[in-house]
Amino acid sequence: MLLTRLQAGQRKKDARSLQPMIEQTVLLFDDEELVDATAPARTLLEASPLASSDWGRLIAFLTPRFESVRDRLAGIAEIGRIEVSGFPGPNGGAPLRLIAEDVNGLTRITLVDPEAEGQGLLVDGLSQRALEDELENLRHALDLSPSLVWQESAAGETIWANRAYLLRAGSLAEEEVTLSWPLPQLFKLELEQTEYAPRRVMLQDEDGIDTWFDCYSYHLGDNWVHFAQSADATVYAEKALRDFVQTLTKTFADLPIGLAIFNRQRQLQLFNPALSDLTALGVDFLSKRPSLYAFLDRLRETRMMAEPKDYRSWREQMTTLEKQAAAGYHSETWNLPNGQTYRVTGRPHPDGAIAFLFEDITSEMTLTRKFHTEREMDRAVLDNIAEAVAVFLPSGELSSANAVYHRLWPAQSAGMCLHDSLRAWAEACVPTEVWSRARLRLGAMAEREPLAGDVTLRDGRVIACRFVPLAGGALMASFAEKELLAEVEPLRKLAAQ
C-alpha cells in the first residue's frame, strides 16, 4: 500500500516536471509574413496543405476548424484581440481555441488544444513518425485519385480539396505544387441534413463543353465531404440508348407488322401501333404491360386467334408456343374466324425476352390459294386433252406434263432434262432424222426454233411431234397419234369457224 502511494506521488511529480517542457503553438506575423514561431507551430505549418506562403498554410489549417476565420483575422488591428472556439472534432472531440492579438503592429496567433493542455504528455517518436507517414500516404492517395474530392463548411465554403478538384477548377497547373486561398467552388449543391443520395451535376468548361459528374455527399461533423466521379461515359451511353430507342420506336411505328416484346418475366415491354390495329386490343390495355398469358387470353376473348376446342388444349398450345419461341425461331399460321389469316412469329431476345411478330397475310394467302386453284385447273385441262404435252424450263429440266404424256412415254420422270428426253424418245421410235434435227435446233444454246415432224413408235403407231418455244426460253413438246388427229382435225376447223 505504501509503495503504491509512493508511485502515485512520483507520477504526479513527473507530470509537474514535464509541463515546462511543453511549448505552446504560437506564431508571429507581420501582415502575412512569418516573423517567428515556436517549434510546435513550425511543425504545424509543415504538416498543413501546400500553399504559396506560411500565412496561406495557416489559413488552410484554420479554415476547416474555425468559422469565418480569414475575415476575423483581417480585422485584428482594429479589434486588438479576439478569442474564438472552433468546430467540434469529427469524433466529438473538444474544439480548438484561437487567440489572436495585435502586438505593436504584429499579429500574434496562439492555438490551444484543450484536450492536451496541462496534461504533460510526451509523444513517442516512432508513433509520431508512423502517424505522419500514414497522413502523407493518405494525402498522396487523395491527390492521385481521379475523383474530385472536397470539403465544405456548414456555411457552404470550400475548406479543402484534392488535386483533381483544383486542376478541374483551373486554380492549379499540372506542374504546380502550391495553391491559393480561398479555394474555388465548382459545384453548388443544395443539401438537406439527411440527404446522401447521389446526384448528377453538369459543369461547363472554358470551351463550352458540358461534362457530367455523379456527386456523393456525406456529413463530417458539422461539415460536408463530397466526392464527384466522372459520368460522361454513362451520360453519353444513356443518350445513345435513348436515341437508339427513339429510332427504333419511329421505325416500329411505321411497320405494318405488329410487334410485341415480353421480358423474361413475360411482361409486355414494347409494342408498336400496328399491334393494336391488327389485334383490336386497345392502347390502354397494352400500356398496362399485361403478361403474355393475359395478352393471349384477351386475343382469345376478342376472337383474334383460332378458336380452340377447349381451354386446356389452348393453354397447352400457348405454353408450347412460348417454349418454342424462347428456344429459337418459331412460326405458325392463325386462321381467324373472320376470314383473316395471321402469321405469328416468335423469336428469342437477349436476357430471356421474347419478341412476337403479327403479320396479316390474308392477301398473300388469298393470292396463293388463287394461284393453286388456277394451277389445278390448268393441270385438269391438260389432263383432259388428247395430246401428250410436256413443258421444259429454259435450263432444259422437265417442269410439267399431263397424264397422256406419261402414258405415251412411261419412262419419263419429273426433273428429267431435255437432252435425256430426246434420247429416250429416239430409243422408243424407229430411227428417223426428226430427232437429229431436234437436237440441233432445240439443244443449242442459241434461240430455239419451232420444229414439227412425224415419228413411228416401235409398236407401229405414227406420232405427230411438235416443239414450240415459249416465252422466257421455255419449250413445249406435244405428241399426238395421227389417227387421233385425223378424227379431231375436223372438229378444230369447225370450232375455228
How many DSSP E strands?
20
Order of strands, widest sheet: 2-1-5-4-3
Rounded Rg: 50 Å
Counted by DSSP, the helix tally is 17
Give the termini separation: 154 Å
**Structural class based on helices, strands and sheet pairing:** alpha+beta
Mean residue pLDDT: 78
Largest sheet: 5 strands, antiparallel
pLDDT below 50 for ≥5 consecutive residues: which ranges?
A: 1-21
Residue share in helix: 25-40%
- The coarse overall form would be rod-shaped
Q: Based on the structure, what is the oligomeric state of the protein chains?
A: single chain
Strand content: 15-25%
How would you explain this protein's 3D organization?
- By secondary structure, this protein is an alpha+beta fold.
- The protein has helices at residues 2-18, 39-47, 54-62, 69-74, 76-79, 125-144, 163-169, 232-253, 273-279, 283-287, 292-301, 311-327, 362-383, 403-408, 418-427, 433-442, 482-496, and strands spanning 25-30, 33-37, 81-85, 97-103, 106-112, 148-152, 158-161, 199-204, 210-220, 223-230, 258-262, 268-271, 330-335, 341-348, 354-360, 388-392, 398-401, 451-456, 462-469, 475-481.
- The longest helix has 22 residues, at 232-253.
- It starts with a helix and ends with a helix.
- Mean pLDDT is 78; it is low at 1-21.
